[in-house]
Amino acid sequence: MPSSATIQARYPFRTTVHFVVTLFLLLAALLQQTHAFVRPYCYGPAAVQQRRQQKISMSVDTEHDRPAHVVIAGAGVIGISTAYYLATQHNIACTLVDPTGTIAPAASGKAGGFLALDWNDHSPVKDLARRSFQLHQELADTFGADAIQYRRCTCAAVSVDPYNNQQQQRPAGKKLQGVEWAQPESADSSGAVLGVRSLGDQNTIAQVHPKMLCEALWEHASKPAAQGGMGSQLKHGKVVGAVYDEKGKLVGAKLHDSSVLAADAILFACGPWAGNIMKGVKYHSAVIPTDTVLEQCVFFSGCGDPEVYVRPDATAYCTGYPDTAIRVTEQPGQEEVRKEKIATILESVRDASGNSKSGGALSRDPILEQACYLPTTDDNLPLMGLLPTESVGGGQCYIASGHSCWGILMGPASGESMASLVAKGKSEHVDLSPFDPSRYKGIKPVEDTQVPV
Which of 134, 226, 307, 409 has the most crowded Cβ, counting Cβ within 10 A? Predict the structure, then answer.
């Protein structure tokens, strides 16, 4: 079995509810008396906690000017979700600007799409995660579950050691309960599975195909006015600045080619490319065909600790071995796929699930190999909110990024919250104060953000 410490170290946000409950029961008294217990990656800096304790109001900004048109920099799940909710809930059109000119070119099109309701329950992103899990179901009902490969499923932590020859973990011939497909009974290494623990059932675990979700969101956001939509548009380019008039009013977004798009609000949602404080963690992944449609996602402990997210199209998304966080220099959609990293992932999942000689579930050749960067911050909390005027030279500029491995899960609620903040001056469902970008002094969404008229 993977230890609680192992899971915590591997998945800063993906701490299981079992681990959290146990830890909090043991340390509750100490926490209440000293307030000294701070969980890595869950609570962030003291300033964030102070804002939470102050219970900053989410009331309407009475001086907020409702924008007529919004420019969104970045066509990932956060930007697209915001465009969707601006159009469907607030009747506001936007222009989505992306350096590739395409939808979901980076992590939002290459992620696994794993969704967990309660894995973040003891972190500042709890409400964001829970709200978004609910919205994923609503979106599946709206678009049709098959259209975005959404389904409820199960998840397990499986401890494996394919090199264990003692075979004393379970009686020969006895089917391991709780494991749908790891190490079949015919495997040569029948003692490889050391144990299993449920990490969630269909009440708390789901999955979606990220690329298909983004395409469905954008299809509705860009629906022409003649069809009852707002006619939002996608443009090839890069936002490099905010343009203000002589009175300090935002009038547009300047692009890399010096052209200006009319706008009275700008959202920077560029993932690891959003802001001078953002970093990216590079992940590689391989999609492998399976003989049958499987329904159990697995976090392996052992064999390099790979992660496997099975999909309803009889494939399995396999990943692991992340790089360290860096300032990203590769461009969106042009991330190098390192063959040696893919080979390591394939070897890992095959050892964990049964090799090709024993007919393991992941023994076939991959049909897709890819790499992407997960956006992260130094305190491992998202950036979501109104940018300080000094960072852009004026007002009405926002940022939403840094959701790390939970970008797809939190995408819909992040988009809903940012759409509400932009349109009404408040977030109606989720308190965004823990994610206030002003916690980082000197933050800038791009190098030169203020451009005079």
Answer: 409
Q: Give DSSP secondary structure letters for 24-57.
A: HHHHHHHHHHH-----TTTS--HHHHHHHHTT--
Calpha distance 71→69 (Å, rounded): 7
Q: How far apart are CA 433 and CA 114, in angstroms?
A: 26
pLDDT, one tens digit per residue, over 288-340 is 999 889 999 999 999 999 999 999 999 999 999 999 999 999 999 999 999 99
Alpha helices by DSSP H, listed for 144-257, are 210-221
Tokens of 218: 């954008």
Per residue in 205-245, pLDDT (tens digit) is 999 999 999 999 999 999 999 998 999 999 999 999 999 99
* Spatial CA neighbour of 308 closest among 182, 183, 209, 405: 182
Residue type, 422: V
The domains found in the chain, sorted by start residue, are 4-52 (no CATH), 66-147+209-277+378-452 (3.50.50.60), 153-164+181-189+279-372 (3.30.9)
